[in-house]
Every structure is written in structure tokens, then in C-alpha cells.
Amino acid sequence: MADVTGLSPATPTIGRLAVIGLGLIGGSFAKGMRQSGLCREVIGCDLDPVSRRQAVPLGVVDKVTANLVEAVQGADLIMLAVPVLGMRAVLAQLAALELGDAVITDVGSTKGAVALAVEEVFGAVPANFVPGHPIAGSEKSGVEAARADLFRHHKVILTPLEQTAAEAVGLVQRCWQVLGADVESMSLADHDEVLAATSHLPHLLAFSLVDTLASRNENLEIFRYAAGGFRDFTRIAASDPVMWRDVFLANRDAVLRSLDAFTQDLGRLREAVDTRDANTLLGVFTRAKSAREHFSTILARRAYMEPMQTQEFNFIASPGGKVNGSIRVPGDKSISHRSIMLGSLAEGVTEVEGFLEGEDSLATLQAFRDMGVVIEGPHHGRVTINGVGLHGLQAPPGSLYLGNSGTSMRLLSGLLAGQDFDTVLTGDASLSKRPMGRVAKPLREMGAQIDTGEEGRPPLRIKGGSRMMGMDYQMPMASAQVKSCILLAGLYASGTTSVTEPAPTRDHTERMLKGFGYPVKVDGATATIESGHTLKACRIDVPADISSAAFFMVAASICEGADLTLEHVGINPTRIGIINILRAMGGNLELLNEREVGGEPVADIRVRYAPLKGIDIPVDQVPLAIDEFPVLFVAAACAEGRTILRDAEELRVKESDRIQVMADGLQALGVKAEPTPDGIIIDGGAIGGGSVESHGDHRIAMSFSVAALRATGDIHIKDCANVATSFPGFIDLAQSVGMQVRLEDNA
Ligand code: S3P
Fold first, then answer.
1. Domain 333-541 bears CATH identifier 3.65.10.10
2. Which tens digits make up the pLDDT trace of 56-108?
3. Could you tell me if the CB of 409 is within 6 A of ligand 1?
4. 407 lines ligand 1 (CB under 6 A)
5. Domain 14-186 adopts which CATH fold?
6. Where are the transmembrane segments (predicted)?
7. CA-to-CA separations, 52 to 55, 104, 242, 243, in angstroms, rounded
């Protein structure tokens, strides 16, 4: 028999399955299990004669009965699929029977009430009882609507208790998995809280709104004018009233908590409308819009991807491409982050153009929205920030999730150390491995109270209300993030704060602070700031990111016949290591139309093919090209002779260990690349086709896309979703200049 997931057929491990209640959910479970081959026999039990008549002909069960005792006799698994409030009566009958080792599970949508009923009837929840809830349904109901694939790609939440036997949980989990569901575990209380907020409350609101409008407009004429918005919002008011009545009775406490929070927020909105408080209205609407968009993305991903493949986002880059034309790459990531931070802390309205709409800078934007800053956009790179002043941030409602972005976490830690509220900063798997001691330690010396996770890694827990004191900090590593963190903390510390760097690093923070009218003294390697001044809103034009342009600089340099112009690229002297190094290797790069825009130098960069040669990379260029090494390694692989990089151990603590990951990838393509503790030695030569791992590092993924221009076969690049952190639209732009890179089709 076929397994409905399309996986290998299951071997029967269950003798008899009894499904009590043959509605849509019970019927679909029974039908799917019957088709899966996981059980030898499926018995259905339902009091409704019509359902009983249909169940066998529809292939839902092997046998059907109205008698519960008969149904559960000799059953190995008993599935209770009756309405939540009907559960107690069924349980009471079961408790009186000798059920042997039978595992009992259910599909009730409120778990606390079911567990309570079980406890009352059995004395204690038995170890073989596994509470469950499939998050699936359909507008149709009844056994006639039962579908074996109803649960495919849907979540099923199991809420085992402390005493629940692991084997019982395993069995129930296996059943749901065989039906193609994505099984998760959580506590009873969490389940009821989450469902109250995401399902029960919206149903209550929909019922209520339709009733309010209908009862005040007797002939329902008003609905003739109701457009799509009303239809979308109230669709669920057509759901089964009896079932929903039971849900609210059963999940009373959790629903009340959600409803109270909502009523309070609605009250605030009412007041904002009443007092014409435009800022509050815009704040709520912009935050909600971005949350809804985030949610749509999650839903879209789920809709077209197999559950097991949600992580798979691979590129295929093929040889034979060209690199010609004139393009503008997205906005500078470092400047985009800082524009949100300083714009939020400024007095007045800051307008940003050219903002990078990548996941990293959006994480910063979201963090400030969470702290009460009203930010409009981004829309085509335009962002409007309604600054709240240096002391206007508010405590966020929860922890600040910063995704993949080390810059957000490190810069924010300095700024948040000086606030009077507590914050927790978290990130994705890659960010959670990155060192934060480098910011926590100096901030503690300034008086901040910060806890890190193990070995100085995220999450960061920052206590508010600390008295920060200025200090002179000699930075042990060349890091613009650490420097910026300390300078931002200096805005809140008493007296002056200075940072001295061992080598020049990007100075966007210093430049932008000055752009906002905040005095910063830069004297050689030392930048000094004094608290007590204010930031004044301004306009910011974010240039194209030289770090993103770098992929195309190398692409054009290694591709015979290439001639490419990169428009409006930021050429801040602390960022141009890539240009200097490529030129030293023989690259043909011309800076055109040099100008200054909003305190940052900008140029169009024309790059033409030129044979490259290997070099010893000058160590003073390392901090100036720190993000460009992955793609420079590709240039080195295409160069004649040997390229040596030293003094670059910082590369080992970026989004991935960029020395090791690039060495592994280049070696997989047949390139001689030998990692050293602080760098790499690469001998130029032929690049073959093959498969490489990007380890979720955006710059590694894009670098191997470039390498394909000189490869002898396709390069499959794994795990590329994070390209969206810094370079949304990379594939389209690369194709537009003639590169042969595409998303692997997972279908
Ligand atoms: C950045 C500084 C650099 C860089 C990162 C962005 C910044 O990090 O690698 O992509 O915006 O300040 P380090 O300070 O860790 O070198």
C-alpha cells in the first residue's frame, strides 16, 4: 500500500487503530493511516448513522460501529477526534474499560481542557496518553470531506506531559509523520497560549465585527459596500459556531489574556484616533505591516517547499558567462545600519535614500521599530525615520532578534548599554556562534552590565540603568564594529570616550555622527566623542556597497572580453582594499566621475578583463578589504602564480570561518588552496566543476558564483538563502550582465 507522503511504504507496526469520531479530522486521519499501511486494521466509531454509512465505501475505515466498547477492543492505538467538550464523556467510558497497553491520543484544539478531563476521569493523566493537535482544517466538514493528505505539510503539535511514555509519543509522532505532517512538541500551556493568540482571538474578532455591523444595520444593506478587505478579514466568521463556542469555553484563560492585551492596544489606537495622534497610528501601522510581510514570506516559503527542504536554497553557476554593461549594486550595508541607528537617535525626521533592503539592515530597522521608533518604508530604498532623540527609545516588547547580522548586534550592544531599560539580543545559528566578548568586555569596563552566552557568544543580556563612564580604549583587533560600539556607548557615558585602533578600519560611524551634527574628534588612529550633545536629523544618500560591487569587480577581471561599469559605488578610503589589491594583481579598474555624496566619496568604477598575477597581499590592506577576501581568493585562483594572505585571522570569525570554508570549496574544485592559521596560500590554475558548501555565508555563495566564469563545469553551491542578508536580487543582477547563475529548482 502507498504511503501518502510518497516515501517508502510503512511496515505495519500497529495492529488495530480505533478512531473515535469520523468528522473531517478523524476521518482524514483514519483514511491516511489506512492508506499508509502502518496499521493492519482501522475501526471507526461514530454516533451519526449517515457518517457510519459513508465511512467504509469512502475508504475511510475498514469497519465502522456506533459502539465505543466494540471499537476500542484490542486496539493498539485509540485516536479521539470528538469535539473538545464531548471528550469527557468518551474518556469516562474508556476509563471503565480494560485497554491493556493501548496508546491514546487526541486532536483537540485546546490541550489544557483535554488534559484536565483526562485527569479527572482517570485520576491522573496515564503515561500512554499523548495529547496532540493538528493545525489543519478545511471549510468543508464531515466524513465525506475526509482526505488522506489533509495533514501533509501541516504542523501537528504534541504536548506530552512529564509522565508521558517516550514510546507512546514516538508511536503517535510516527503516525503523523507518515501522513506527511511536520510534528513539533511544546508544553500544554504554551500550546494554548499560542493558539489563543493566533487562532482563537482572530476568530472572536471576526465573529464580533460581523455581528456589530450586522446588528446595527438591520437589512444587511451595508455589506453591499464591503470590499475585499472586509471579506478577507471576516472569512472566518463563517466557521462552525458550535465548535467555536466550545473552543472559547475550553480555552477561557488563555483567550482572556490575549483578548485583554488586544483590548488594551485597541484602546490606545482609539485614543490616537481621538487625539489625532498621527505618530502613534503610523507607528502601529508600520510595525504591523512589516510583521505581516515577514509572516507572508514564511507562508510563501511553506507553500512551495517540501518541509524537509525549507533549508535548501542552492545556486547553480555555469561556465560560459559574460560580464558586460552598467549596473548599480544595492546600498552599502554598513551605512544602512548606521542610518537607522543614528536617524532613530536624532531629533527630527531623517530621510534615507539608497537604503539596503537586505535582511541584515532590515533586522536593525525592526529592532528600532520594536523600541518605539516610527520608521516608514523601506520603499525602493527610501526610508523615513521619525527620530526620538538620544533618550527617546522605549523598552522593546521582547528580545531583539538580529538574524545573521553581527553589525547589528555589536553596534546595538554599545547603544543599548546606555539605556534605562533591559534588552536581550539574539540571532540565527551563525550569529549565535560569533564572539561578543570583544564588545562585552570593554563595555563592562565602561560600567555596563552585560551577560553573554557560553564562551562570550550570543545571546547578550544587557541591563538598563547602568552608569556608563567614558574611557580610552586601545582596541586589540582592527574592528570597525567594536570601534563603533564603543563610540555609540560614549554617547551615553559621562565625559569623553576614545578608541584607538591598531590599523585603519571603516569610519562610517565617525563620518555619519558628524553628518548628524555630533562632534567627533579624529586624531590619527584615535576617535574621541563626548556625551551631552545631540544629533540633528539629516538626509542620507547611501552609496552602492563596494563589498557587493566586489563580486562584479572580480567577475569582470577574470572573464575574457568583460567590460563592466559599476555605478555610484562608495569608495571610502577605509573600504578600497579590493581595488588596491586587484590593481596590484594586474586588474584594470578605472574610477570615473569621483564625487562626494553626504560625507562619503563615491565613483563609478569601470572594470575590464585583464590577466591577473599572484601577489603577497600587503597586510595593511587586510582591514580595508576584510569582507572581500572570499571573492579575492577566487581572483587568486584565476591568477598566474601564487597569492599569499597573512594577518587575516579575523576571517575565521566572520559569518563562517571564511579561510577554511573557502579553502574547502576551492579544493573541491581542484584548486590548490592551503589554509594557514591567519590566512591562505593559493596557487592559480584551472578551476573544475563540482559541489561546494557555503555554510550559509552570503559572501561565500556569491564568490563561487563568480568562480564559475572560469570553471570547466557547473558549480553547485549549497545553502545560499543568506545571500539575501546583504545582496537581495544578486541572481537577477548577475544574469543581467551575462553571468550564468541560477537558483536550483527544488521541485
Ligand atoms: C562592519 C565591520 C566589519 C565587517 C562587517 C561590517 C561594520 O566587521 O566585516 O561586514 O559595518 O562596521 P569587523 O568590525 O568585525 O571587522
1. yes
2. 999 999 999 999 999 999 999 999 999 888 899 999 999 999 999 999 999 99
3. no
4. yes
5. Rossmann fold (3.40.50)
6. none
7. 5, 22, 22, 21
**How many CB atoms neighbour CB 500 within 10 A?**
15
What is the predicted pLDDT for the residue at 614? 98
Cβ–ligand 1 distance for 413 under 6 Å, the answer: no
Environment class of 162 (CB within 10 Å of its CB; exposed 0-12, middle 13-18, buried 19+): exposed
Which is the closest atom of ligand 1 to the Cα of 547? 10
- C-beta 483 within 6 A of ligand 1: no
Nearest-atom index, ligand 1, CA of 337:
11
Same fold: 315-325+543-743 with 333-541? yes
Class of domain 315-325+543-743: alpha beta
Distance between Cα 407 and ligand 1 center (Å): 6
β-partners of residue 156 are: 134, 183
Cell of 617: 597581499
Q: In degrees to the nearest 10, what's the CA dihedral of 3, 7, 11, 17?
A: -40
Query: Are residues 667 and 737 in contact, defined by beta-carbon separation less than 8 angstroms?
Result: no
Q: How far is CA 89 from CA 93, 117, 242, 710, in A?
A: 7, 9, 17, 72
Q: What is the pTM of this model?
A: 0.79
Nearest protein CA to atom 10 of ligand 1, as residue: 627
Rg value, the chain, Cα: 30
Please say whether the structural domain 196-265 has been given the CATH code 1.10.3660.10: yes
User: Is the separation of the CB atoms in 647 and 622 below 8 Å?
Assistant: yes
619 vs 598: which has the higher pLDDT: 619
How many residues in the chain? 747
- Residue 678 is among the residues annotated as catalytic for this protein: no
> Which among 46, 192, 627, 697 is annotated as catalytic?
627
Q: Is 334 in the pocket of ligand 1 (CB under 6 A)?
A: yes
The full set of domain ranges for the chain reads 14-186, 196-265, 277-310, 315-325+543-743, 333-541
Distance from C-alpha of 90 to C-alpha of 152, rounded to nearest angstrom? 28
- Cα 479 to middle of ligand 1, angstroms: 6
Model confidence at 242, pLDDT cuts 50, 70, 90, reads confident
Q: State the pLDDT confidence band at 284, using cuts at 50, 70 and 90.
A: very high
